[in-house]
Design a protein that fits this description.
This protein has nine helices and ten strands. The protein is α+β, with helices and mostly antiparallel strands. Helix 1 packs parallel to helix 2.
Length: about 350
Amino acid sequence: MTVLGILKSLNTNVVCSYLGKKSVIPFRPLLSAKATPTTTSTSTSKSISSCISSKFQFEFLLGSQMCQHHSLLASQNTSRDESKRTITSSASLNTDKWYQKIMKMREPIDTPSKTQSKLLSDLDSVYELQIHKVKPENMLEYLKQFEKFASLMNEKKTGAELLASFTVLIGDQDEAVHLWKYKGGYTSYSKALMIYRTDEDIVAYRSERNAMLRERYNQILLRFGFWEFNKNREPGNLYELRSYELKSGSMIEWGNHWARGLKYRQQNGEAVCGFFSHIGDLNMCHHLWSYKSLQSRKETRDLAWQLPGWDENVRYTVPLIRSLKSRILIPTPYSPLQ
């Protein structure tokens, strides 16, 4: 190869490979590509010497530019790493802020020193709510048989007292609702339960009754301490049983609001009694109301909204409710509550 060819080969872009990617590094040769060759040996020697010198300078410059290129790439990688760390740190910070936002620390809650049953009621008496779903064709016979059963429970000295007995007028049809009281608490209830399960006459009644039922259900209740059972009323009433399923842990708050709000619902003597569940489906409470008619019910409820303070009771108690069921009831002929 001639000296001119060597020089021309230097006047190109040098391609180097770094990390598997081709990077074009421009190179500007020190000698002109238009150098004129000479014929003398001295000129040739000088040209070769110059070429060799140029080659060394080229290698030096190439190494220098490659070092600069490596330094640039390293700088870029460092910048990317720092950027990633910044983004990661920022994302982590944002995540922490988001977590703190949705998981706000609540104020410390005082741990009650008593159970909610002791805070809301006393255990001198327990109550049993019975709901019997009767086959439609057997309703009349069922009611006759239940009257005999109520008499048997009294004759056998079980300690059980029938407070009220109803059939459903509006709500789930062909249902009977009974409310019992056991004075003396669970001791009295256990005694009555033992007689109920072992006495021959009562066992015979249960066999006949069960053939007339589609389903039956019961709950053990406690009475709200602020709500006395008001059974002194003239006959000829309709009753409403409003059954609430509350959010877990909200029963005490519910009782506190109703202890203040009950006064707004006593204008026409409509408040009969209020209970909450102790065994069975928990977080349940039942309010029993009395009205002369459905129109009287509407007027009485409308009247409450005209009293300052009732709206606050509703506003604070509604968020505690999971579900609500209302039944309009009529007393059976033998119900103590008429």
